[in-house]
C-alpha cells in the first residue's frame, strides 16, 4: 500500500499520500533521493527554506534546519517555529513569516523577497503541518509557473503537490529520516 | 403599494381574531431608502472589487482536475484552461461559490423550514418586538433589504429575495457561464451576504416564535460536557440545527412533569437553541465529538433534525442500540415516513427493534415518541455496557500491529498505533490526548485490518476524563442591545476597547478543543469583547480554572470590555454582524437602510472586529466567513481552513494597495495595511493569537486606541512566538501610538531597524511612518462618499 509498513520499498508510482485521500491529478510529486534534492537546492539561484511548527516537536529537526541555514540558505520560520531559532540564539538569516502570507508573496514574480533582493526559485518545505504544506505546495505548483518556482518537500511525508519529495517515514524510522536529511545537507 | 397581511384584535373579544390576508399598507419611513435595496448580484460589484483588488484571492487547489461535466476530466494544473475554457483560478472561485451556495442555502432554508412548520400553529403575525432597548431590531435585514420588520410576516419577502438570488447565483455555476475568478469571488461575496441575512431571519424567527432571550445579559447557566449527562436517567440525544422538534420534546416533558426524570442532551446548535429557553437540557458536545458521544452509548434515542449530522448515523446508532428519529425531510436516511401514524405504534416499533428508526416530519408529533421511546429503551439498554470492558480493551491493543494504516486515513495524521502500544505498556496519556485531538470521523476504523474499533478504544482510555468533563455555559442571549452599543460604540471606534473577537463555527480543530478556551481567555482577559456562537461556544465551556469555573462563569456576558457572550447558535452569529452595523447606525448615525457598501466601508475602516473559525469545516463556515468579509470583518481560520482553497490576503509590502480617501477633502492617502487580510489560515494557535490582534487594527484608530492594540499585538507575539512582530512598525503613526511602558525602547528600535528619524530630546518621531495621526481623519474607500460626488 505504499506506507511505511513495507519499509518504504514500494515504487513511487504507488506511493501513498500521507493523508490517503489527498490525491492530486496528472502530475505527482517525484520521489527523490536526498542527494538529488540537495543538488537542486544547491543549484538554485535563490533558494529558501520554509520551516514550520513541527521542527519544535521532533528531536533533530531543528538541528538540521540550522545546519541548512548555516550553508547560507535563508530561512523563513512560520508559525511558532521561530521560537526554536530564538531559543538557540541562531544568528543566521532567519525571518518570521506567516505561511499563507509568504506563499502569496512567492507567487508574485515582482516580490522583493525577505531580504529585498528578489523572489526565490526553489522553496523547500520542512516541518510544516502536512495538509497546510500540501495546500501551499499546490498553490506553488499551479500558479508559480512563470517564472517557474519549484516547491520541494524534505518532510517525512510523501507530498503529491511537491516537485520533489521524500516518502513517508513513521516515528520508528526517525533515525533513517534524519540520516537522509544529513545526506542532503552534505551536498549543499 | 406593498401587500402586507394584518390581524385585528378587538378589546374584550379575546377569542375573536380576524386575519386579513392582503391589505395595503405603506411601510413606516424609518429612514430614507438607500441606494441598494435588495441588491442583485451585480449591484455591489464595485464594493467587491474594492475588496478583491486589495485582498487578492489566493488559491490553493486541492485537486488539479475538474470533473464537473462530460468534457472532463480536465487537467487544469499550472493554471491551464479546461475544455469549456475555464481556467484553474476561475475554477477555484467557482468551487468557493459552490461551497458558499450550499452554506447559504442551509441557513436560509432552515429559517424557511421553521416558518413552514410553525405558521400552522401560531401564524405569521407574531409580533417581532425585541423590547425597549432595541430599536434597530434586524440590522442585516434593514441594511440589505430596506425592510424594518415588525412581525414574522415581514420576513417573508426577505426570504423570497434570498431564494431568488441564491438561484440566480447557482445558475452562474453552470458550465459556460462566468469565466473570471474575480467575478466568481464577487458572487461568492454576494452569497456570503445572503447567508448572513438568512441567518438573521432564521434566528429572529425562532426568537419570536419561542420567545427566546432578546439580548438580555446575565443569562442563566446550564451544564455542558460529556460528563454532564446523568446516565442513570433515560436520555434523548438531539443532533442538528433546527430546534422545533426538540422544543416539542421539552413541551411534552413539561406537560408530563418529567423534566427531572428524562435527560435531554444535545450535540451542536439545536442544543444551543433549546438551552436558550430550557436550561435543564444539557449540551453534551459540539459537532466534533458526535461519533464519540454516540459510541459512548448515552442515547436511549437519537433525534436528528438538519445539518451536521453524520450521514452514517443509522449505522453508528445501531452499534449501541439507539433508535433514530429523523424529523426533517433533508435527512431521512432511507427510513419510513411515519408522520401522522399512531404514536403508540411508532413507539412500540422502535422499542421492540422492528425498525432502526422512523421519519416524523411534523415537529409537534416528535415529543411524545422521543420521550417514551427513551423511557422504554433505558432499562433495556442499561443492562448493556457500551464502553469496552478492560479485557476487550486489552485484546484490541494487543491485536494492533502498528501497521500505520489508520494514520494514513486520519485527517489529523494521529499516530494511533504508537498510542496503542503505549497504552499496552500502561501509559494511557497518548490515547487520552488523541481522544481530544480526534475529529471523530471514523476513517481509521474502516482501514484497520485488525478490525479494531479505534474510536471505542479512545473512548475507553479517556473514560475517566469524560466522566469529569462538565462545565457551565450561559444560555445564548441573542442580539446585542442598542443601549450596549451606545456604551461601547465610542471606545470601540476609538480603539480603547481593542476589538470584538468572534469565535464561530465548527470543531475541525488542528489540536483539540483546548485552543478555543485559550483564544477566549486570552482576549477576554485583555479587555476585548468575545462573542461566541456555535461549536466554539460549546467547546470552551468545559474547561475549568483552578477554582473550577468556566469562562462563562468568570466573565460577564454584557457586550462590553472584557466580557464573554454566548450569542447563540450558528444562525445567531448574524447578531455579530448586527452589532457592527449598529455601531454605524447608533454611534455614528449613519443611515443603514439599503446602504450596504457605505456601512461595510464604515466597518472595515473603523470597527476593530475579527472572526475566528478555528475548526472551520462546513460549507456554512465558508459562507459565514465570506459574509463577514463582505461586511468588512476579517476572519482567521485554523490550518484545515486552507482546504477551502481560497484566502483573501493583503500585501503589506505593496503600499499602493492601502490607499484610502479622506472624506473631508477627497484626498487619497497611503495608510497602514489594516486590516491586513480578510481571510487567512493560521498554522497553530501560537500564530493565531497575535494574528487576530493584528487584524483588529483599523485606520481610524485614535492614538490611545492604537497604543492599546499595538501593546496586545506585540505582547501576544512575544508571548507565543518569542519575537517582535516583523511588521509592528507599520502600525506606528506617531510616538503617541507607542506602548507607554517601553516607549523609549521602541523608539530606539525604530531608529536602528527601520532608519526612522527620532528627536531624542522631545522623544518624538521626526520621519518614518506611512501616515501621521490625524484625529479627524474620515476614511473611506468609496468615491461616492467624497464631497464632490455626494
Ligand atoms: S466544467 Fe469545464 S473544466 Fe470542468 S470538466 Fe467540464 S469542460 Fe472541463
Ligand atoms: S490500522 Fe489498526 S492495526 Fe494498524 S496501527 Fe491502526 S489500529 Fe493498529
Ligand atoms: S476518528 Fe479520529 S483517530 Fe480516527 S481517523 Fe478520524 S480523526 Fe483520526
Proportion in helices of chain B = 40-55%
Radius of gyration of chain A: 15 Å
- CATH architecture of the domain at 45-210 in chain B, by name, is Orthogonal Bundle
List unreliable stretches of 5+ residues of chain B. 1-25
Please write the CATH class name of chain A. Answer: Alpha Beta
- In terms of structural class, how would the helical and strand content of chain B be classed? alpha/beta
Shape of chain B: globular
Describe the structure.
- Chain A has 188 residues and is an alpha/beta fold.
- Chain A has a single domain (26-187), classed as TPP-binding domain (Rossmann fold), CATH 3.40.50.
- Helices cover 34% and strands 13% of the residues of chain A.
- Residues 1-13 of chain A have low confidence and may be disordered.
- Chain B is α/β, with parallel strands linked by helices and 790 residues long.
- Among the domains of chain B are: 45-210, Helicase, Ruva Protein, domain 3, CATH 1.10.8; 226-382, Rossmann fold, CATH 3.40.50; 390-452, no CATH class.
- Chain B has an eight-stranded mixed beta sheet with strand order 3-19-22-18-17-14-15-16, with helices on both faces. A six-stranded parallel beta sheet of chain B has the order 9-8-7-10-11-12, sandwiched between helices.
- The interface between A and B is large, with 55 and 54 residues.
- The complex binds iron/sulfur cluster (SF4) (3 copies).
- The site of one iron/sulfur cluster (SF4) has 15 residues of chain B, from helix 16 and helix 17.
